[in-house]
Amino acid sequence: QQQVKQSPQSLIVQKGGISIINCAYENTAFDYFPWYQQFPGKGPALLIAIRPDVSEKKEGRFTISFNKSAKQFSLHIMDSQPGDSATYFCAATKETSGSRLTFGEGTQLTVNP
Amino acid sequence: NAGVTQTPKFRVLKTGQSMTLLCAQDMNHEYMYWYRQDPGMGLRLIHYSVGEGTTAKGEVPDGYNVSRLKKQNFLLGLESAAPSQTSVYFCASSSWTSGNTIYFGEGSWLTVV
Fold first, then answer.
1. Is the pLDDT of residue A88 over 70?
2. A81, A82, B19, B31: least CB-packed within 10 angstroms?
3. How many CB pairs under 8 A join A and B?
Protein backbone atom coordinates (compact mmCIF):
# COMPACT_ATOMS: atom_id res chain seq x y z
CA GLN A 1 0.00 0.00 0.00
CA GLN A 2 1.11 3.56 -0.64
CA GLN A 3 2.04 5.03 2.70
CA VAL A 4 2.73 8.47 1.27
CA LYS A 5 0.14 9.96 -1.07
CA GLN A 6 1.02 12.95 -3.22
CA SER A 7 -1.11 15.35 -5.24
CA PRO A 8 -1.54 16.68 -7.81
CA GLN A 9 -0.03 14.31 -10.36
CA SER A 10 0.75 17.23 -12.65
CA LEU A 11 0.77 20.99 -12.23
CA ILE A 12 1.09 23.86 -14.67
CA VAL A 13 1.96 27.30 -13.31
CA GLN A 14 2.79 30.60 -14.93
CA LYS A 15 6.17 32.19 -14.34
CA GLY A 16 6.11 34.15 -11.12
CA GLY A 17 3.24 32.14 -9.66
CA ILE A 18 3.13 29.88 -6.60
CA SER A 19 3.39 26.13 -7.02
CA ILE A 20 1.88 23.99 -4.25
CA ILE A 21 2.30 20.24 -3.95
CA ASN A 22 0.68 18.27 -1.15
CA CYS A 23 1.51 15.01 0.58
CA ALA A 24 -0.19 12.93 3.24
CA TYR A 25 1.33 10.09 5.21
CA GLU A 26 -0.08 7.26 7.29
CA ASN A 27 2.76 6.00 9.46
CA THR A 28 2.99 8.10 12.63
CA ALA A 29 6.49 6.71 13.21
CA PHE A 30 7.84 8.78 10.31
CA ASP A 31 9.99 11.61 11.61
CA TYR A 32 11.85 12.97 8.60
CA PHE A 33 10.16 14.40 5.50
CA PRO A 34 12.31 15.37 2.50
CA TRP A 35 11.38 16.65 -0.92
CA TYR A 36 13.37 15.51 -3.94
CA GLN A 37 13.60 17.25 -7.32
CA GLN A 38 14.21 15.28 -10.50
CA PHE A 39 15.07 16.67 -13.94
CA PRO A 40 14.53 14.53 -17.06
CA GLY A 41 17.24 11.92 -17.49
CA LYS A 42 18.68 12.53 -14.03
CA GLY A 43 18.37 10.99 -10.62
CA PRO A 44 16.39 12.70 -7.86
CA ALA A 45 18.27 15.19 -5.71
CA LEU A 46 17.41 16.46 -2.24
CA LEU A 47 15.70 19.86 -2.35
CA ILE A 48 14.60 20.55 1.21
CA ALA A 49 13.60 18.54 4.27
CA ILE A 50 11.75 19.01 7.55
CA ARG A 51 11.42 17.26 10.87
CA PRO A 52 8.14 17.34 12.82
CA ASP A 53 9.43 19.54 15.62
CA VAL A 54 8.81 22.58 13.38
CA SER A 55 5.77 23.56 11.33
CA GLU A 56 7.60 25.34 8.54
CA LYS A 57 11.01 25.43 6.91
CA LYS A 58 12.11 27.90 4.27
CA GLU A 59 15.10 27.80 1.95
CA GLY A 60 15.09 30.56 -0.63
CA ARG A 61 11.95 30.26 -2.74
CA PHE A 62 11.12 26.81 -1.37
CA THR A 63 9.04 26.29 1.79
CA ILE A 64 7.78 23.14 3.47
CA SER A 65 4.67 23.45 5.63
CA PHE A 66 4.08 20.60 8.06
CA ASN A 67 0.88 19.69 9.91
CA LYS A 68 1.59 16.86 12.33
CA SER A 69 -1.98 16.43 13.57
CA ALA A 70 -3.31 16.11 10.02
CA LYS A 71 -0.32 14.01 8.92
CA GLN A 72 0.19 16.28 5.94
CA PHE A 73 3.02 18.33 4.53
CA SER A 74 3.34 20.49 1.47
CA LEU A 75 5.94 22.15 -0.74
CA HIS A 76 5.44 25.75 -1.81
CA ILE A 77 7.55 27.22 -4.59
CA MET A 78 7.30 30.99 -4.61
CA ASP A 79 7.99 33.06 -7.75
CA SER A 80 8.09 29.86 -9.83
CA GLN A 81 10.58 29.90 -12.71
CA PRO A 82 10.78 27.84 -15.93
CA GLY A 83 13.96 26.29 -14.50
CA ASP A 84 11.83 24.82 -11.70
CA SER A 85 10.07 22.58 -14.25
CA ALA A 86 10.81 19.09 -12.99
CA THR A 87 9.24 16.16 -11.17
CA TYR A 88 8.96 16.58 -7.42
CA PHE A 89 8.72 13.72 -4.96
CA CYS A 90 7.81 13.94 -1.32
CA ALA A 91 9.15 11.21 0.94
CA ALA A 92 9.11 10.09 4.53
CA THR A 93 11.15 7.87 6.79
CA LYS A 94 11.84 6.97 10.38
CA GLU A 95 15.33 8.35 10.97
CA THR A 96 16.59 5.20 12.65
CA SER A 97 15.66 3.07 9.62
CA GLY A 98 18.87 3.89 7.76
CA SER A 99 17.31 6.41 5.37
CA ARG A 100 14.90 3.92 3.81
CA LEU A 101 12.63 6.50 2.23
CA THR A 102 9.01 5.90 1.27
CA PHE A 103 8.21 8.10 -1.71
CA GLY A 104 5.02 9.70 -2.95
CA GLU A 105 3.89 9.16 -6.53
CA GLY A 106 5.50 12.32 -7.87
CA THR A 107 4.25 15.62 -9.33
CA GLN A 108 5.32 16.82 -12.75
CA LEU A 109 5.61 20.61 -12.54
CA THR A 110 5.65 22.77 -15.66
CA VAL A 111 6.30 26.48 -15.30
CA ASN A 112 5.35 28.39 -18.43
CA PRO A 113 7.36 31.49 -19.37
CA ASN B 1 33.32 14.19 -8.46
CA ALA B 2 31.61 10.94 -9.54
CA GLY B 3 29.24 10.28 -6.60
CA VAL B 4 27.00 7.32 -7.54
CA THR B 5 27.66 5.70 -10.91
CA GLN B 6 25.39 3.14 -12.55
CA THR B 7 26.14 0.86 -15.50
CA PRO B 8 24.72 0.20 -17.99
CA LYS B 9 22.60 3.27 -18.66
CA PHE B 10 20.36 1.56 -21.21
CA ARG B 11 19.62 -2.10 -21.85
CA VAL B 12 17.05 -4.12 -23.78
CA LEU B 13 16.50 -7.69 -22.64
CA LYS B 14 14.41 -10.54 -23.94
CA THR B 15 12.02 -12.26 -21.56
CA GLY B 16 13.87 -14.90 -19.59
CA GLN B 17 17.33 -13.40 -20.02
CA SER B 18 19.44 -12.46 -17.03
CA MET B 19 21.50 -9.37 -16.36
CA THR B 20 23.27 -7.46 -13.62
CA LEU B 21 23.16 -3.74 -12.93
CA LEU B 22 26.26 -2.35 -11.29
CA CYS B 23 26.32 0.53 -8.85
CA ALA B 24 29.48 2.14 -7.57
CA GLN B 25 29.84 4.98 -5.06
CA ASP B 26 32.99 6.86 -4.13
CA MET B 27 31.69 8.61 -1.00
CA ASN B 28 32.52 5.80 1.45
CA HIS B 29 28.82 5.49 2.32
CA GLU B 30 27.64 2.63 4.52
CA TYR B 31 24.13 2.39 3.11
CA MET B 32 23.19 1.57 -0.46
CA TYR B 33 19.81 1.11 -2.13
CA TRP B 34 18.17 0.01 -5.34
CA TYR B 35 14.89 1.70 -6.32
CA ARG B 36 12.71 1.31 -9.36
CA GLN B 37 10.72 4.19 -10.83
CA ASP B 38 7.50 3.61 -12.72
CA PRO B 39 5.03 6.26 -13.98
CA GLY B 40 2.53 7.26 -11.33
CA MET B 41 4.14 5.08 -8.68
CA GLY B 42 7.06 7.13 -7.49
CA LEU B 43 10.21 5.30 -6.45
CA ARG B 44 9.88 1.93 -4.76
CA LEU B 45 12.67 0.28 -2.77
CA ILE B 46 13.76 -3.09 -4.15
CA HIS B 47 16.66 -4.07 -1.87
CA TYR B 48 19.06 -2.23 0.36
CA SER B 49 22.28 -2.77 2.27
CA VAL B 50 23.45 -1.30 5.56
CA GLY B 51 27.04 -2.42 5.12
CA GLU B 52 29.49 -4.60 3.24
CA GLY B 53 28.29 -8.19 3.12
CA THR B 54 24.73 -7.39 4.23
CA THR B 55 21.55 -7.06 2.19
CA ALA B 56 17.85 -6.82 2.98
CA LYS B 57 14.55 -6.82 1.12
CA GLY B 58 12.67 -3.63 0.42
CA GLU B 59 9.12 -3.06 -0.73
CA VAL B 60 9.27 -4.89 -4.10
CA PRO B 61 12.07 -7.52 -3.95
CA ASP B 62 10.50 -10.34 -5.97
CA GLY B 63 12.43 -11.25 -9.11
CA TYR B 64 15.61 -9.47 -8.01
CA ASN B 65 18.74 -10.43 -6.13
CA VAL B 66 21.54 -8.23 -4.81
CA SER B 67 25.06 -8.51 -3.51
CA ARG B 68 27.37 -6.15 -1.62
CA LEU B 69 30.77 -7.83 -1.65
CA LYS B 70 32.63 -4.52 -1.49
CA LYS B 71 31.57 -1.41 0.41
CA GLN B 72 31.62 0.74 -2.70
CA ASN B 73 29.63 -1.60 -4.96
CA PHE B 74 26.02 -2.80 -4.93
CA LEU B 75 24.87 -5.18 -7.66
CA LEU B 76 21.28 -5.77 -8.72
CA GLY B 77 20.57 -9.00 -10.60
CA LEU B 78 17.60 -10.13 -12.64
CA GLU B 79 17.78 -13.91 -13.01
CA SER B 80 14.90 -14.31 -15.48
CA ALA B 81 13.68 -10.97 -16.78
CA ALA B 82 9.96 -10.34 -17.22
CA PRO B 83 8.17 -7.50 -19.05
CA SER B 84 6.90 -6.27 -15.65
CA GLN B 85 10.51 -5.44 -14.82
CA THR B 86 10.64 -2.82 -17.55
CA SER B 87 11.47 0.26 -15.52
CA VAL B 88 14.06 2.87 -14.65
CA TYR B 89 16.35 1.65 -11.90
CA PHE B 90 18.10 4.01 -9.51
CA CYS B 91 20.91 3.20 -7.18
CA ALA B 92 21.47 5.43 -4.17
CA SER B 93 23.72 5.69 -1.18
CA SER B 94 23.85 7.45 2.16
CA SER B 95 25.82 7.58 5.35
CA TRP B 96 24.87 8.07 8.96
CA THR B 97 27.15 11.11 8.82
CA SER B 98 25.12 12.64 5.95
CA GLY B 99 21.95 12.62 7.99
CA ASN B 100 19.14 11.17 5.98
CA THR B 101 20.26 12.63 2.66
CA ILE B 102 20.53 9.94 0.04
CA TYR B 103 22.41 10.48 -3.19
CA PHE B 104 21.07 8.97 -6.38
CA GLY B 105 22.77 7.80 -9.54
CA GLU B 106 21.48 8.91 -12.93
CA GLY B 107 19.43 5.79 -13.56
CA SER B 108 19.48 2.69 -15.74
CA TRP B 109 16.72 2.32 -18.32
CA LEU B 110 15.76 -1.34 -18.73
CA THR B 111 13.28 -2.64 -21.30
CA VAL B 112 12.21 -6.29 -21.29
CA VAL B 113 10.54 -7.44 -24.51
1. yes
2. A82
3. 62
Measuring CA to CA, which residue among B38, B40, B58 is closest to residue B49?
A: B58
Q: Is there a contact between A100 and A4 (Cβ–Cβ < 8 Å)?
A: no
In sequence order, what are the residues at sequence separation of 6 or more whose Cβ sits closer than 8 angstroms to the Cβ of residue A90?
A4, A6, A21, A23, A33, A34, A35, A36, A73, A75, A103, A104
| CA-to-CA dists, residue A78 to A64, A105, B36, B83, angstroms | 11, 22, 31, 41
Task: Pick A43's closest partner by Cβ from B59, B96, B107.
Answer: B107
Nearest to A43 among B42, B96, B105 (CB): B105
Query: pLDDT value at position B41?
Result: 85
d(CA A95, CA B68): 23
In this predicted structure, what is the pLDDT of residue B12?
Answer: 97
Cα separation, B29 vs B75, in Å, equals 15
What is the average per-residue pLDDT within B101-110?
A: 94
What residue in A sits closest to B42 (Cα-Cα)?
A105
> pLDDT over 90 for what percent of chain A?
86
Would you say the C-alpha torsion B53, A95, A2, B24 has a positive or negative sign? negative
Specify the amino acid at residue B102: I
Q: What's the mean pLDDT in A68-77?
A: 96
